[in-house]
XRE family transcriptional regulator
Amino acid sequence: MELEGLGAYLRSRRGRVTPADVGLRTYGTARRVPGLRREELAQLAGVSVGYYTRLEQGQAGTASPQVLGALANVLGLDPVETAHLHNLARQPATSRLVRPRPERPHPRVLSLLASLGDRTPAVVLGRRGDVLAWNRTGHALVAEHIDVEAPHDPARRPSIPRMFFLDSRTRDLHRNWTELARIHVAYLRLTAGRHPTDARLAELIGELAMHSRDFARLWAGGDVADCTVGTMHLRHPTVGDVSVDYQVWLQPESPDHRLEVYTPDDAASADALHLLSHHVAGQQEPGAVRGEAAPGPDR
């Protein structure tokens, strides 16, 4: 699947801005487009209609930061959406997809994960949402139906996006699946803008769009968001209903890798996590981490 370009993103964002949003009067005339017309957006951004049209058609080459800033302002983009716009603008008109080598977590990331022990569930995720490592409680919390050893083998690594949209047990696990699904898709789009030549990422998005109507619908919406904090409401098969806050620790030495840590959202959930840690205790040595280390981050 071909990843999104600048023109497609501009069209999708233009379609969600009404004339009233930017102070334009329509005088009751019928409009053929749901959002702003090209000429309206161009005028408000201070560029010619011809130049903006070429931008949408991928024929204008690169756009200056000033032009992109003006477009982002008119379109009402937030900082993450604006960063995505700039990422797309930096892409060459034609680029060849490249199949990157399998990701491996940096040893320091694994050391940080091990330092959390088993009382605090945690997972290390790669750029495409593959599980690169997890502690025993992290595994038991988010994917206890999957082999705990799977992150060792790049060919078998659990993919959180695939699980979320193609695995019924993962869907049933999340009581706020609809909210989290939107975030997952928006973050994948952000990642696609950062890594436009990643063939594995393009294949993942294509697979999900083909096999999940929910994913295809959300992807067509064009939303972009980062995924750093939030709450998961789970109906866990072992400990029952539990709500956890997740927060992401970004890794300076491997910026594409994210250590996602889960903490209880309330007292009852704290008790549930305590029970879960006891449930997995005794299976192997305390603080064990399942994942494969590498001498350094992959590019």
Remarks:
- Residues 295-299 have pLDDT under 50 and may be disordered.
